[in-house]
Amino acid sequence: MSRKVLLIEDEPNIAEAIRFLLTREGWQVQTHGDGADALQVIRAANPDLVILDVMLPGKSGMDILRDLREQDGMQSLPVLMLTARGQSRDREMAENAGVSRFMTKPFSNAEVLTAVRDLHAQATRL
Amino acid sequence: MATLNILILVCLGYVVLLFGVAFAADRMAAAGRGRWLRSPVIYTLSLSIYCTAWTFYGAVGNAARSGLEFVTIYLGPTLVMVSWWWGLRKLVRVGRSQRVTSIADLLSSRYGKSNTLAVCVTILAVLGGTPYIALQLQSITLSFSIFAEADTSGLYREGSSVFWVAAGLAMFAILFGTRNLDANERHHGVVTAIALESVVKLFALLAVGIFVVWGVAGGMGPMMDRIDASEIGQWNVDAGRWTTFIFLSAAAFVCLPRMFQVMIVENDDEGHLRTAAWAFPLYLLLMSLFVVPIAVVGLDLLPEGSNPDLFVLTVPLSQGNDWLAMLSFIGGFSSATSMVIVTAMALSTMVSNHVVMPIWLSTQEGSGSISGDVRNIVLMARRVSIAVIMALGYFYYSLSGGGTALSSIGLIAFAGISQILPALVGGLFWRGATRTGALVGLSVGFVLWIYTLLLPGMGAAWMPASILESGPFGLGWLRPQALFGIEGIDPMVHTVMWSLSLNTVAFCVTSLLSFPSPLERLQGAQFVNVFDHSAAPRGWTGSVAQSEDLMIMTQRILGAGPAQEFFQAEAEQQGGRSRLPEPTPGFLNRLERELSGSVGAATAHAMIGQIVGGSSVSVEDLLAVADESAQLLEYSSQLEVKSAELSRTARKLREANTKLTQVSEQKDSFLSQVSHELRTPMTSIRAFSEIMRDTRGLSGTEQTRYAAIIHDEALRLTRLLDDLLDLSVLESGQVSLNVGDDSLRSVLDRAVSSALAGTDEKLAVRRSRASERIPLHTDLDRLGQVFINLISNARKYCESPEPVLTISAHDVGGRLVIDFTDNGSGIPPEAQSMVFEKFARVGGDKAGGAGLGLAICREIMQRLGGEISYLPGQGGAAFRVSLPLAYQQAAQ
C-alpha cells in the first residue's frame, strides 16, 4: 500500500528535510513550492496527506486550506499545517479553516513523524 | 434817478462777474493753484453768508422797530465764535473724518447711519429754509420795487421779477453747486464767489453808513446827538427776549444748513477756525456799526409809514444819491443771492442724498449691479432738488404775499432749525445719546415749533383764532401761545423755551431709556472722541489696506482659521495674484453674507461699508463693536467653544488611537516577519541536525550535503541578524557617517568585485569606466554597500540566460546619477512600489535573502543626502541611485 504525501513548502531545505524523513517512513513524497496553483496540484496528486506551509508565494496556506475544504471530497483530507510565524492567532485561523494538525516551526523531526502517523491512522480508521 | 433798465443791467453784470469769479476759482482749484482760495480770510468771508438780506435790510428795520434788539442776532454767532470755537473745531473734525456732506448726514451718521433721522432733519431744514429763501426773494423784489416806483417805463411787474430772480438763482446754484461730485463736497468756486459777495455787502453797508453819518447827519457828534434824541437809542433790554434771541441766533448759526455747508463741509483746514474766531465777530461788528445811525436817520428823514426794512436803500435815494443806492442795492442783492445759492446747495445735497437716492436705490434693487452712472443720477437728483427748493421758496413767497416783516420770518426759521441743536450737541459730547432719543427729541421740538410758531404765524387759514384763544377742543392748556397755561410771554420766547426744553428733555430721557445699536455705539465713540481717533484727516485707503482691514475684522468675527480660508479661497478665485483678494463687489457681497451669519445682516453691511466706504473709522473701533456683540453672546459662544474643544480633543484622541493601532499593527507585522525569517533557517538547521544525529547509515555525500545546508542556513541567520541590526541603526538615525574621498570608479570597482566574488554565476557587468571619473565625498563604505546590494540583486534575480548589468553614471542638474539596469524581466508594476519595503521579497526567495536589502539601501541613501528609486520601463530591473556631487557637497 503506497501512502502518498503532498508537501507544499517553498523553502527547499525544509522540503528536503521532510522528504528525507517521510521517505524513510515509507511515504511517497511529492513536493510543490508555490501557493498559487496549490489547489490544482492537490486535486491532481490526490494524496493521503497534505503538509502545508502558511507563508507561500502566490497564495497563503490559510487561503489554500479554506478553499480546499469547500471542494467536494476534500473535507476529510488530513492537512498538517506548518507555520514559521508562531502567533496564537494563526492557530485559531487554521482551526477555523479546517486544519487537521497545526505545528510551529522549528519543529522536531519526531513531532512531525508523530503527527503524520496520527493523522494517517485517523484517516484509515474512518 | 437810476432807471430799472440800468439796475437790471447792473444786476446781470454783477451775476456775470460772480460766475466769472466762481469759474476762475474752480479752474484754479482744479489746477492745484490758488492757495489763497483756501485761506482763512476766504473762509471767514464765506461764513458771512450768515448775514443775509434779512441782516442787510432787516437789521435796520428791526432797529427802527425794536431798538437795539437787532444786536442779539449778531451777539449769538459772536459768542459761539469766541467762546465755543473748540466745539466748532470738533464739528469740523467730525465732519471731515466722517466725510459728512450735510447736517442731516452728520446726524444720521452719528446715530447709526439712520436714514429716518436724516429724512427728519431734511424735512425740518427744507421747511425752515423755504420761508427763509422766500425772504431773500422778497428782499430782492422789495428793493427792485423801490427803484420801480420811480420808474415810468412800466417794465416792472413784481410777480415775474420774483420768478426770474428765483430762476436765475437756481441756475447759478445748479451751475456751481452741482458741477461735479467732489469727494469732499467742496465747492471752491461758489465759496470764492460768496466771499466776494461778503466783501460787497459789507462795503455797501459801510458806504451807506458813512454817507449817513458824515453826509447826512454831519459827523459823529451830531449823529450821537440824534441817536440820543431817538427812542430807539435807549437801552430797553427785555431780558427774556434778549436771552432767547442770542441763544436762538447762536443755535441757528451752528444748525443752519447753509452755515453747516460753509463752516464744516467747505472747510479746508481746521486752523481757519482760529482766524474766523476773531475775524468773523469783527465782520459782524462792522456790519452792525451803522445799523442804528441808518435807522435813526431813516426815521427822521422819511415820511411816516415808510418801510424801515428798506431804509438802507431809501435813505440814499431820498438824498438823491442814486449811485450809493445802487451800491446798496447790490449789497442787498449779494446778501440774498449768496444765501439762496448756498442754502439751495446744502438742502439739495440733503434731499438728494437722503430722500431721492434711497428711493431710487430701492427701485433699483434686484436689478443687478449699480454701475458708474449713479454719479449722473446723484447730480441730476441734486439739480432737480435745487430747482424744487427754489420753486418752494417762490411759491411760499407768492402765497404769503410777502407781507410779513423780514426779521420775523428769519426768526421763525431760526427757531425751527434750532430744534436740531440738542441732538447735534448731545451727539458730539454724550456717548449715551441714541437714535431713538434724537428722533423723539427732534419730533417733539419740530411739532411744538409748527404748533406754537409756524402755524399761528401763517394766519387764520392755517390756525383758526378759536384754537389760539381757547386751545384745541377747548383744552386751554394746549393754547399754541400759552402752553400749560403759562401766559404773557412773547410768542417767540414761548416757542423757543417750550420747544427746545421739551426737545432736550425728550432727547435725554429717551436716550437713557433706549439701547443703542452697535453701530450707534461705534459712531458715538467716533464723534465724542473724534480727537483721539483722527490725528489728521485721512484720505481714501488703498484697496490692499482695505482688504487687510476686512481681513482683520473678519478674523475677529469668524475666527482666524475660517477667515483665512475664506480670504484665501477668494484670492485664488480672483486669480491669486496677491495674498489678499481685491475688494470687488462680488467678494464684498459674499463677505457680507459670511459675516451676517455671525453679527446679523445690518451690522455686517455697516461694518463692510465702514471699511470700504473709506470713512476713517479705525479698525479698532470696528473691533470694539465686534467685541461688544461678542460679549452679548459670550455665554453661548463660550459653550460653543467648550463643545468645539471637546470634539477637537475627541478627534485628536481618535487620531492618536488610530496611529497607535497602525504603529502597533506595523510592529506586529514586522515581528511576525522577523519571526518567520528567523524560524525558517532554524527549522532547516534543526531538522538536518536531528537527521544527522538520529539517522544511522547516512552516506558520506548525504552527510556533507546536510552539513552544508546547516552551514548555509546558519549564515543566512547571521545575515538576517546583521541586516536587522543595520536597519535598526539606520532607521534610528544613530548611524555615524565615515566620510571620505574617492572616485566613483574605484568605489564601483570594489563593489563589483565584492558582489561577484566567490560566485560562479555569469552576470556580466557593463560599465563606461571613463565616465566614472567623478570624485565622491561621502561615506564610501555605505555607498559601496548600496552598490553591492544592487549588483547582488541583479546577480540573484536577473533570469536572462545571459544576464547583463549595465551601470552608467551621469551628471544630471548638479547631481550624480548612477543607473543599474539589467536585462531580466524586471519587477512587475504592481510590486514596484513595494520593493523598498522591509521583507518585500518580490523576486521570490531563491537567493534566500530576507528582503531587507533594498530597505537598507533606501535608508543609507537618505543618510547620504541622496536617494534610490526604481526606474520603470527600462526593459529589465532598473535602479537609480542619485546623490549630490562632491564639489557641491564640499561647497555646502
Would you write up a description of this structure?
The complex is a heterodimer of chains A (126) and B (892). In chain A, 45% of the residues lie in helices and 21% in strands. Chain A has a single domain, classed as Rossmann fold (3-Layer(aba) Sandwich). Chain A is globular and about 30 Å long. In chain A, strand 1, helix 1 and strand 2 form a beta-alpha-beta unit. A five-stranded parallel sheet of chain A has the order 2-1-3-4-5, sandwiched between helices. Chain A is α/β, with parallel strands linked by helices. Chain B is mainly α and 892 residues long. Chain B folds into four domains: 384 residues, Sodium/glucose cotransporter (Up-down Bundle), CATH 1.20.1730.10; 95 residues, no CATH class; 90 residues, Helix Hairpins, CATH 1.10.287; 155 residues, Histidine kinase-like ATPase, C-terminal domain (Heat Shock Protein 90, 2-Layer Sandwich), CATH 3.30.565.10. Helix content of chain B is 69%, strand content 5%. Chain B has a five-stranded mixed sheet. Chain B has a two-stranded antiparallel sheet with strand order 1-3. In chain B, helix 10 crosses helix 14 and helix 27 crosses helix 28. About 2% of the residues of chain B have low confidence. At the A-B interface, helix 1 of A face helix 30 and helix 31 of B.
